[in-house]
Amino acid sequence: MMSRIVSFSSRITRINKVRGFASSSVIFSQKDPIWLTLYAKQGCSLCDKAKEVLQQVRKDPSMTQKIKYQYVDITDPNNDQWWDAYCFDVPVLHVDRYNQKESIKFMHRLNAEKIIEEIEKY
Q1: What does the DSSP assignment read for 84-110?
Q2: Gene3D superfamilies this protein is in (predicted)?
């Protein structure tokens, strides 16, 4: 198995190549914030509502230091893998933290209280 580390700002992504297939996983340290990644598209009313819900979460004083946020427009040609995965399921929120192997996913109708509850679990 070949493995290489690629740095993206404060996160590190490990890319493993096994039998010609590539997979990636995010590597965090305990000091890293929790990453919230919203996968959405323009012209989607549920996506607009999800952005509002995440704005509430991000404005919560107890969340400011705990989270980082990024938005992924799945219609961008550079995001074909996310279009293939979520074209009929947006919005999708991934919650990633240092001690988990796979993202926690929230889909469709997001709820600020449930997202905050998930963030505070660890």
Answers
A1: HHHTTT--EEEEE-TT-SS-EEEESS-
A2: Glutaredoxin
Asked whether the whole model's pTM tops 0.90, one would answer no
Residue pointed to by tokens 């040609």: 77
Rg (CA), the chain: 15
Domains in the chain: boundaries: 1-28, 33-119
Backbone φ/ψ region at 99: left (φ over 0), alpha (ψ -120 to 50), beta? alpha
In words, the CATH class of domain 33-119 is alpha beta
